[in-house]
Amino acid sequence: MEPNPAIRHAPYRARPAPRTPASPLGAGFGGTPAYKSPEQADGKPADARSDLYSVGCVLYEVLTGRPPFTGDSPAVVLFQHLHKAPQPLSQLNPALALFWEQVLATALAKDPRQRH
């Protein structure tokens, strides 16, 4: 392949989300509300168990076609992560094996100590 002088490579550098009081939920809010763990929604530190919760949210969406929690604002979604149970998989996709319901019950546990 011949080099093309019209094409330029711009280096990419990932940066953390800005943390400003002007953000919709106040200072320090970052990340996608649909995939945040309850402890993150509550402003507590994240660890590997938070990642398990987020992966559970993605898996729920893959299996059902929608995230476990939705709402009109990020605050509504975060409230649901803290206080609501997601709609059972069997109601959204009855063809799924019970196994998936059990996997997601563990991954989406509100208490991080119950995730594994």
Structure description:
With 116 residues, the chain is mostly helical. The chain has one domain: Transferase(Phosphotransferase) domain 1 (Transferase(Phosphotransferase), domain 1, Orthogonal Bundle), CATH 1.10.510. It is built from five helices and no strands. The longest helix is centred in the middle third of the chain and has 17 residues. About 9% of the residues have low confidence.
- Counted by DSSP, the helix tally is 5
Number of strands: 0
- Give the overall shape: extended
Give the ordered list of helices and strands: HHHHH
**How helix-rich are the residues, as a percent range?**
25-40%
Radius of gyration based on Cα positions = 18 Å
β-sheet strand percentage: under 5%
Can you tell me the CATH class?
Answer: Mainly Alpha
The overall pLDDT average reads 84
The named CATH superfamily = Transferase(Phosphotransferase) domain 1
Distance between the termini: 48 Å
Largest sheet: none
**What is the SS-derived class?**
mainly alpha
Number of domains: 1
Protein name: non-specific serine/threonine protein kinase
Organism: Streptosporangium pseudovulgare
Keywords: ATP-binding, Kinase, Nucleotide-binding, Serine/threonine-protein kinase, Transferase
Biased composition (Low complexity): 1-24
